[in-house]
Amino acid sequence: MSTRKRTTTEAPAARIRELLDGWYREHGRHTLPWRLTRDTYAVLVSEVMLQQTQVERVTPRYARWLERWPTAAALAAESPSEVIREWGGLGYNRRALHLHGAARGLASMNGAGRPGIADLRTLPGVGAYTAAAVACFAGEERVAVVDTNIGRVIARAMLGKASGRQVPPRNLTNAAEALLPAARARDHNLALMDLGAMVCVARSPACEACPLARECAWLAAGKPADEAWIATTPPFETTARFARGRIVDALREVRALSEAEVRALLPAGHRVSAAGYLQGLERDGLVEHRDGRWGLAGTFTAG
Ligand code: SF4
Asked: Where does 13-29+144-220 sit in CATH, by number?
């Protein structure tokens, strides 16, 4: 697809909206299970799961979760240890606790009507993005939703930057709001999300297949690289997140472990930090201890 010269980095919003809409009707992931519901709790479950985990991994787990806990009240009544166990394999275990806390808040709102973005923002662990996503995807509120994928598309197409990291968050949100259509904001946000996930991917975007190619400010500028971004990510196995995940995984399998047993299950380089990891997990509400034994939260106490 050819590109035309631009004199400004400000892409014409109306044209982008129109092109995006046409593309989404044909190529959007309309049958993802969480897109077939408007249930606030179910959409919240999907959003929390999708925060750090791929769609393919989330899909079966989302179904299993809703089968086990079909309502916010059902999840709210569960022990945290069971919720953390069920989360196994999804990573970033604190999300399980956030979801549990949010379900308790949601259950307590029951009967007060569908929660709006301001209500959702009061739920534990629900940040600005999640509140906006749930308000839009479940409640069809007209609100900009800016996750990493959407931020990247907007940064590129509208602002001529390689990624959302190069744009102050407020500017990114302003650009997303300027792009919002007067109606069908839900489809619009889902379209941006799908384009970011399927076409305008972080590395090697498929510009030749992109409906926005003729309007894209970043493509028109010759795709300048994000010079400031240098991959400094350490190997995952050397991180505290890896070690903490290993501990929580082990506690999913057994009721409790001593600190010495925890130390033994960690790779050599992490053993010296075993006590610190346990204390950190305790501070995050994921584990608790009694009589020198450590278990998942709720193992020794009522959830
Ligand atoms: S033309 Fe390329 S960089 Fe621009 S929005 Fe499309 S895929 Fe992304």
From this structure: 1.10.1670.10
In 159-230, at which residue ranges do the beta strands (DSSP E only) sit? none
Which percentage of the chain shows pLDDT scores above 70?
A: 93
User: Cβ(256) to ligand 1 under 6 A?
Assistant: no
CA atoms within 13 A on the CB side of 101: 17
**Which of 10, 26, 47, 56 does the annotation list as catalytic?**
47
Q: Which fold has domain 236-296?
A: Arc Repressor Mutant, subunit A (1.10.10)
> Is any atom of ligand 1 closer than 6 Å to the C-beta of 199?
yes
pTM of this structure: 0.83
Q: Where are the beta strands (DSSP E) in 42-149?
A: none
Q: What is the pLDDT of residue 232?
A: 56
Q: Structural domain boundaries of the chain?
A: 13-29+144-220, 39-137, 236-296
Mean pLDDT computed over 48-67: 95
pLDDT per residue as tens digits for the range 153-183: 999 999 999 999 889 999 999 999 999 999 9
Cβ of 200 below 6 Å from ligand 1: yes
The best mutation among 203, 216, 226 to test binding of ligand 1, ranked by most ligand atoms within 8 Å of the C-beta, falls on: 216
| CA–centroid distance, residue 34 to ligand 1 (Å) | 26
